[in-house]
Amino acid sequence: MEKSHENVKAFGWAARDTSGVLSPFDFSRRVTSEKDVQFKVMYCGICHSDLHQLKNEWSNSIYPMVPGHEVVGVVTEIGSKVEKFKIGDKVGVGCLVGSCRKCENCDNDLENYCHDMILTYNGVDTDGTTTYGGYSDIMVTNEHYVVHWPENLPMEAAPLLCAGITTYSPLRYYGLDKPGMHIGVVGLGGLGHMAVKFAKAFGTKVTVISTSVSKKDEAIDHLGADSFLVSRDPDQMQGAAGSLDGIIDTVSAIHPLLPLINLLKTHGKLVMVGAPEKPLELPVFPLLLGRKLVAGSGIGGMKETQEMVDFAAKHNITPDVEVVPMDYVNTALERLLKSDVKYRFMLDIGNTLNKS
């Protein structure tokens, strides 16, 4: 069915300024148009990028801001020309809710690289309004930017829609998904633990690289990594030199690249998915001497995101989450700042977002 009257009342939690503190917020969603899907939000992950945006650390924040781009819920209404979904379907929305649909990137299922990409929150929609994310009770999204959520995949696995696709996409695109390859994963947070799980599911050998030796047992015993390197230990790093086909670097802090480049085999690929706020030093000689590649990757297009979710369901890949009520969100953000979570906070929107 399709409605034609005023906007839909919505409720969520928003930040009003650079303090980043969230509080209850009444707002409106657009009416469900002919190609839109409206859904009740059940779960929404807290991504580290939410922290940056809430505090305007990337200098592009629009307030009031309702964050959230790892959103899973149940369809409650569809537009008259929606073809892919029906009422009652489980669905997900990730980091983008719009693109131009005309450029070369969009034509090649790379909406995530479209210059006119519309972010799920803190973006500007085609009608000039600010987009609001999943820390809210309902979403209204064009069906093209909605994924089917597999029945056997828990809704709490919503971080697949950001942390999952951010690590799945470079493994696939850069050919680091072949059984028997040896893949390194730098950092063991929200992104890193997903990179380990996907790389293992592809049949590769995985080495976790971290500054903290305390994460060794977690990496090997819990996540199934094959080996562990302490990046601050020169002997360990030297001993592993030239051993890796590729590395997924998930670290967002300033860190040296030379030790990582030295771990690569000839033709090895170091792929950056973390986003340090300042430029990193890139030594060129080690690249020349091994025809090595330093590259980047950001989320994925809609076709690949659906492929990733289906792959995760088939191989029983889920993020490790701590489920918390909506009114715990500010505490969760404080803990996230201290890396006090394994590995993703998950807001139980459906059961705990109350107006009272």
TrEMBL record:
CDD domains linked: CAD1
Family label: Belongs to the zinc-containing alcohol dehydrogenase family.
Superkingdom, taxonomy of origin: Eukaryota
Molecular functions per Gene Ontology: metal ion binding; oxidoreductase activity
SUPFAM superfamilies reported in the protein's UniProt record: GroES-like (SSF50129), NAD(P)-binding Rossmann-fold domains (SSF51735)
Gene3D superfamilies, alphabetized: Medium-chain alcohol dehydrogenases, catalytic domain (3.90.180.10), NAD(P)-binding Rossmann-like Domain (3.40.50.720)
InterPro entries (UniProt xref): ADH-like_C, ADH-like_N, ADH_Zn_CS, CAD-like, ER, GroES-like_sf, NAD(P)-bd_dom_sf
Annotated Enoyl reductase (ER) domain residues: 20-347
Cofactor(s) annotated in UniProt: Zn(2+)
Name of the protein in question: Enoyl reductase (ER) domain-containing protein
Pfam family, one: ADH_N
Entry keyword Metal-binding: yes
Keywords, alphabetical: Metal-binding, Oxidoreductase, Zinc
Gene Ontology annotations of biological process type: lignin biosynthetic process
